[in-house]
Amino acid sequence: MLRPAVLSRLATLGTLAAFAGLIAGRPAAADVLPDNRADLFYSKYSGGGMDISTYTASAHVNATENIGLDYSYLVDKVSGASVDVLSNASVIKDERKQNSISVTWIHDKTTYTLGYSNSRERDYISNTPHFSLSQDMFGDLTTITLGFSRSRDEVGENDGTANNPNVVWLGHAESRTYDLGISQILTRNLISGITFDVVTDDGFLANPYRSVRYYSSSALGYSLGSQVYPDTRTSTAIEGRLKYYLPYRAAITGVYRYYRDTWGIIGDTVEIDYTHPVRNKWIFEGRVRYYKQSHANFYADIFPYADAQNFEGRDKDLAASENITIGAKATYAWLPDGWKVFKRSTVTADISQVRFKYLDFRDIKDYNDTPAGGDYAAGAEPLYHFNAMIYQLYLSAFF
Amino acid sequence: MTRKLRNATLASGVLLLSACSSFQPWVKPYERDRLADPVMAWDRDALSAAFLDHVYESREGSRGGTGAAGGGCGCN
Lengths: 399, 76
Prior knowledge:
The complex is a heterodimer.
Chain A: H1 5-24, E1 37-47, E2 50-62, E3 67-80, H2 83-86, E4 92-107, E5 110-121, E6 124-137, E7 142-158, E8 167-187, E9 190-203, E10 211-215, E11 222-226, E12 232-246, E13 250-261, E14 266-278, E15 282-293, E16 321-333, E17 344-362, H3 365-369, E18 383-398
Chain B: H1 2-21, H2 46-57
């Protein structure tokens, strides 16, 4: 039983993403804590041969007027395998558990947040402390946020099966994230935000479950070999966003992100969201997101021969690709006037479809089923593409 | 030249600080009712936003840079 290393990297990336949400995503003003809140969250990702169900419980409680506590517990249940792992005759069934805790302290116009997260899988362990500081200034028109997190990961590979695992620990990886965010009120109807961050990685960064392929005289016309990644990576991302209040009580958001890293990947993301409330009972939201990236400079779908380069990768996440997301979300206030200790409660359903299209990553799974004499020669297989569905359902209670 | 530069820097600093101390926001607190509306929140649900970031970051080469730059409404 093997699992795709994209999921191994999920622990770190997911943790960082969660921090991005905690550090930068909270919409409340920096000098007032948000309401006490509890959430039950379920999501399902299905696509590309993988099914991932996520169950999360989280709570935010204000211990005093100035001190708030956050805790969340998350379980990912994974089954299936993506095409680049399937092409290596491997399937997975795995589980990831994550505990996150943070404390927020507000002093005058400054908000301090200190937190810690632990993510654990059978073959991947990640521990991440994080810190952020937000300052309101210029009559509260401007908020500046600085954030830092440091993740220490242990990377392993399961050479056994789902029921009889045999994990071999391969090495360590360390990641540091530096965030700078500026949020600015421009007019009484328009707000803007800029986020700039740098992430540095050091250590074992390759995906142990994926392979490169190269031309050979085998029946298939190619053979598989181990991926070799650089030991370091530094990435820079800058995102700008605008949100405008429309005349009839609705909002439209525009987002653009530019990304580049030392592996040669350059990415562009564009997103437009529209939010529309109905009678104080419903809030509907629609979004369209487009993403495009170039491939890493050590990526190739097929190499000319074994060990052709110092660094070699065939992880499809490193390939040139594009995807488009269309999503819709509905929030219903089913206790708008509160009940007992609850001020209000909402239930939210969210559904998205993502269409992934790869520009230089080929689908060799089918070709494996039809060796020599099959439909395609090595390196001439069809380009890979797939559709994924993402479902989210969550209950939020404010008290 | 160095002295001129130093004096210019000092003068700029004094001007900047005095501007901060007497700064008048061009959007007054009582004009921020629309910005305080829930429809204007960057991410109404941090869990959902973090989950979607997680989905993308684990399937794309890019990472980071997302988020709403913290705080921001200044509504209170």
